[in-house]
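Session log. Operator J.P. requested a structure for one protein chain; no other inputs attached. Running the standard single-chain path with token output.
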Amino acid sequence: MKRLDGIKACVFDAYGTLFDFASAAARCQDVPDQKLGALTTLWRERQLQYTWLRSLQGNFADFWQVTGDALAFALDSLDIASPELHGKLMDLYLTPAPFPEVPSVLAQLRKAGFRTAILSNGSATMLDSAVRAAGLSDLFDAVLSVDAVQVFKPHPRVYAYGLEKLGLRADEVSFQSSNAWDAYGASNFGLRVVWCNRYGHRPERLPGAPDREIRDLSELPELLAPPPK
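Structure written below.
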């Protein structure tokens, strides 16, 4: 496969791409085993839906509130709602487990000369907590939250903000996301995109077309030509 050339920076989505959003519920012993899968799925689905709906409404609330609201809906829907369980799960969401290959991939990219950054719906506080807990603080040049633009991905303003903060053109950035809607949104904006299709999803019927598709981030370094000097 021909490598992507001209790339100066690798920018990553956070949840589902670098960090396993399912790890919060999986680590909570108070969630009934028979409802764990349903809780993880419903919590994530509603979390994403609330970001899109709030963007359409022009009624921004940070990702911490959105995540809490989505969890409350999921717990109530599964008849396991309690303030204690809600609190435990939200605390665990602050320290999501990174996917196994993430530290080594980031180290490889930086050794090769690429700049690295996060561009995420997550709030600044959530991202700082996740990055620190995973021991990844020294592996990013920038950790960027949509808090700065008050709208969620895939709004074009988010991707434009990332370019502005990095001081790069769209064709100089490789954007990695496991979320197909995010990958297609970034591609439609003009970024070079590698869709990290961890979950085996079908291609979206949306504007945009990711440049490459991989199964996990371990395949990324081989896809990128060395950055221009």
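Operator note: The two ends are 23 Å apart (CA to CA).
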